[in-house]
């Protein structure tokens, strides 16, 4: 069975989520990757290096949903699976594609048990549903954070398809936070801060600790709404879903919406003054105390261990 993966990319570079999606679906059959961009050359080269990729297809044009839906619908006849990450583009285009093809999409897949059996979270991540999809073709979105990335070292051929993507909409502007920290959705270590930090200036403690650990930075919705952190650092049901090896939650009580975004974390360390906070009870390790005392001590200790 053949698989087409829609590549995620940003600022001319392949997103780390694509490697995880390829790793997730590689057991389903030969994987082709579709790269749609104004200049797909560099992105396609990165995609061709992913293990398990048989071929990379490129098309020039916008990655907005209406144009992608049209292109994907013409390519679907060649594939049994059309797959995207459960990011902003995938969540936008795949339901539209499924509706056009009169198929049921299976969204937010966190485990694949076989050719037509998939796990997906429901009830804000409080339960996992196993879905059996007996359709002739499958439209999937993959929660990239739940899977390990495909290895590199491949050299799949790159083929430009005779099609350009034309969208009725146009992108006016893109706003993102410049950072040298790892991608939040796929990072192995995440340091998250809550509204208890009290100000954007105090939130710099989170940034300092994250940089010392080589970690991504996360924030609760309350911290984002208060202006302490940018929107793209938000973790939770209405933010990014993460599954790091280690999540350090600082000053976060653990609202249900936030817990829904960290269900896949392997280990959780909570720093909080409240021993009864939901996230403290969920954590593997809890440090009860004032974060403004604990974090400086932790940074001092790390400075003595990490040059």
From TrEMBL:
Bilayer-spanning residue ranges: none
Chain ranges of the Electron transfer flavoprotein alpha/beta-subunit N-terminal domain: 3-175
Name of a matching Pfam family: ETF
Cofactor note: Binds 1 FAD per dimer.
Cofactor: FAD
UniProt binding sites for FAD: 220-221, 234-238, 251-258, 272
InterPro entries tied to this protein: DHS-like_NAD/FAD-binding_dom, ETF_a/b_N, ETF_a/FixB, ETF_alpha_N, ETF_asu_C, Rossmann-like_a/b/a_fold
Gene Ontology MF terms in the entry: electron transfer activity; flavin adenine dinucleotide binding
Keywords: Electron transport, FAD, Flavoprotein, Transport
Gene Ontology BP terms: fatty acid beta-oxidation using acyl-CoA dehydrogenase
Family assignment from sequence similarity: Belongs to the ETF alpha-subunit/FixB family.
Protein role: The electron transfer flavoprotein serves as a specific electron acceptor for other dehydrogenases. It transfers the electrons to the main respiratory chain via ETF-ubiquinone oxidoreductase (ETF dehydrogenase).
Protein name: Electron transfer flavoprotein subunit alpha
